[in-house]
Specification:
Blueprint: E1 10-13, H1 18-29, E2 35-36, H2 48-58, E3 62-65, H3 73-78, H4 80-101, E4 105-109, H5 138-158, E5 162-167, E6 169-171, H6 184-198, E7 202-206, E8 212-213, E9 215-217, H7 218-231, E10 238-240, E11 246-247, H8 248-259, E12 264-268, H9 283-289, H10 297-310
Parallel strand pairs: 1-2, 1-3, 3-4, 4-5, 5-10, 6-9, 7-12
Antiparallel strand pairs: 8-11
């Protein structure tokens, strides 16, 4: 199928956020003239009436649902109830109101935190339900997996057109660099730059450095969402990533090189590692809507560090 995104009235929930900002820029660069970005102060999607009011006000034909309450391991440990409730309610209510309003298509963003803790590597979409997620972020992961169940159920009962993609860990310029809530790459960048500027020769990091992760540059992720909207029409889940795996220990070395930090890392093994390994099988995205990552980790880190340095933080 071909779905002409630029010709639609579009809502991007979470469009003022990290991935959302890049997606909105991409949509507008494609010629989309009606792209509406709701703000939480005006439309709190945890409230169903706000979901309904958003659709009345914006009259979208296409909805990208990116809004989420997110954070790293620390934030997930401190907010499991909030992350479960708010993410589940936003997704369930928004998609139901989209169905009732006759929205043509919804593209929803899941999370690889929903994969089982010991899923075979590389993660294949068929393994999503073969075990419980890692305990450090299971409430968040399960809340986002509800989007997939809802998408499949609504397609079966109502012939509602929605797709759910599962991006790997994202990074890039304009990321969240707050050490209390950030993910691993922006946190490492901030720690390395700060240590270099202050002349410190030692940085403490959580865990033992052995877990592996896969990362996707944010602009690649935005492009994947557009391709999914235009070319994909199934409720089968789709992984979106680079397909390349790096250990946290090696990642720290790469970030140190990119930031010019010459000191050493000390690993605090009293803190959790999180999921042991993460790497996606990205075959389905390539075969079903033609997505392949273009920005290498080294180049993406260079761009992200340059942004952070330029912002003068």
């Amino acid at each position: 199928m071909s779905f002409q995104v630029a010709e639609r009235r579009i809502v991007v929930t979470g469009g003022a956020g990290f991935l959302g900002g890049f997606l909105v820029e991409k949509l507008r660069s494609m010629g989309a003239r009606e792209v509406f970005v709701p703000r939480r102060r005006d439309y709190d999607l945890v409230d169903r009436q706000a979901c309904r009011r958003l659709l009345v006000d914006a009259r979208p034909q296409l909805v990208f649902h990116l809004a989420a309450v997110v954070g790293g391991i620390g934030a997930n440990r401190h907010n499991p109830g909030r992350f479960l409730f708010e993410n589940a309610m936003m997704g369930l209510q928004l998609m139901e109101e989209c169905r009732l309003a006759g929205v043509e298509k919804v593209v929803a963003v899941g999370t690889i935190c929903g994969y089982p803790k010991f899923a075979p590597v590389p993660f294949r979409e068929d393994d999503l339900w073969n075990g419980y997620p890692d305990e450090t972020n299971a409430p968040y992961g399960i809340a986002k997996k509800l989007l997939l169940v809802q998408s499949q159920a609504y397609r079966e009962q109502y012939d509602f057109h929605s797709v759910v993609v599962f991006p790997v860990n994202l990074y890039g310029p304009r990321d969240n660099f707050d050490l209390e809530t950030s993910h691993v790459i922006p946190a490492l960048i901030r720690k390395c730059v700060t240590a270099r500027r202050e002349g410190r020769g030692e940085i403490t990091l959580w865990g033992d450095g052995t877990p592996t992760r896969e990362f996707l540059y944010v602009d690649d992720a935005a492009r994947a969402l557009v391709l999914a909207a235009e070319r994909y029409d199934s409720s089968d889940p789709v992984n979106v990533g680079s397909g390349e795996e790096v250990s946290i220990r090696d990642l720290a070395t790469l970030v140190a090189q990119a930031t010019g930090y010459a000191g050493r890392f000390v690993w605090d093994t009293s803190q959790p590692n999180g999921q042991p390994r993460r790497r996606l099988d990205v075959t389905r995205a390539r075969e079903r809507f033609g997505f392949t990552a273009e920005i290498s980790l080294a180049e993406g880190l260079r761009r992200t560090v340059a942004f952070y340095e330029q912002e003068g933080r």
